[in-house]
Amino acid sequence: MHGHDLSPSTIAVGAGRPDRVPGGPLNAPITLASALVPGGGSEYGRQGNPTWDSFETVLGALEGGRALAFSSGVAASAALFDLVPAKAVVVAPRHAYYGTIEQLVERERRGQIELRLVDIDNTPQVVAACDGAALVWIESPTNPALEIADIATIARAATAAGAAVAVDNTFATPLRQRPLDQGADFVVHSASKLLSGHSDVILGAIVTNDDRAFAAIAKRRTVLGAIPGAMETWLAARGVRTLHVRLDRAEANARELHQRLSASRHIVYSRYPGFGTIIAFEVVGGPTVAQKMTEQSDIITYATSLGGVESTWERRRRHPGEPQSVPEGLIRLSVGIEDVEDLWIDIQNVLAACVS
User: 116 partner at 20 to 30 Å CA-CA among 98, 134, 192, 355?
Assistant: First the structure.
């Protein structure tokens, strides 16, 4: 009825809402039920829940496919990895979320797959690695190194080699890139991050525009029991409604902070991919100073998560599973929607206190 293509911000606000009927709710209600009356799409809570539909509909519309919610981002990636044939080759970034790499390394250790780790921003290297692969996993920007992949070129090469392509779009969100439009077969999200946006949800999602792939992923979710809760999906759908305004504000803050960090004599380097809310930087004095900084800030919270309305930071190598090629002193800063001057003062104060 609207007669034109809607912008992503309008889709984020409006998609997945209930039909407009007199006396009906504006938002999808939370359905707390383990059993449903037979005759509909499902009759047991592991097969489906009406509350999932709102989140899955709006995310699918934003990404240009059909979405399935999972209990976590790791559960979503695990369901996808389960579809890889035995002994097949999986190509993945050397720098990526360690929960993802940990899964793949464990599967290789068990003899289930052959893992090829690549520098995802080295396109010729990735293209060469596609030969004989069953799945090419792309993270762009990577976590925490913020490397950018040429998704379209890699997807073309992978498809020509007979491999499926999955893109972790957690950092970029569908408002900054739509991998399905660039040839990817799957998009994966940790919806705990920017999509929900308030650090109160553990949730994952997979989006695809292939009906057979959708059915296969849906079956894995049901068989594995990797289902989301009704409250979590309701909160995530509510969070997506404000994704565009949160992202715009946090992104503007991130650009400004990156510029100021790059000009500071206390900073070895600051890396920012030009979009998104994440900055990676190293400070003079190395990992000891970096750790001390993250623990002493007043406004920026010392925490491992990201993508919330609040700014958070941490030294990534404090986690044993982080790739050894990530610098010991690298700080990942997730920029929130606070006043940028307050954030900068907080950073300056801890720099002055911790860097000699």
Answer: 192
Under-70 pLDDT residues of the chain: 1-3, 356
**pLDDT digit string (tens) for 308-340?**
999 999 999 999 888 888 899 999 999 999 999
The overall pTM is greater than 0.90: yes
Please tell me the total number of residues recorded for the chain in this structure: 356
CA distance 129 to 90: 9
Query: Could you tell me the two tokens for 124?
Result: 């010729």
Q: Considering all CA atoms of the chain, what is the largest pairwise distance in Å, rounded to the nearest integer?
A: 69
Tokens representing residue 25 in the block: 């709710």
Q: Tens of pLDDT along 95-118? A: 999 999 999 999 999 999 999 999
Whole-number pLDDT of residue 130:
98
Continuous H helices in the chain: 8-14, 50-63, 73-81, 98-109, 123-129, 151-160, 211-224, 230-240, 243-263, 286-296, 340-354
Q: What 3-state class would DSSP assign to 199?
A: coil
Report the alpha-carbon distance of residue 155 to residue 165 in Å, rounded.
6
Rounded-to-integer distance, Cα 271 and Cα 284, Å? 15
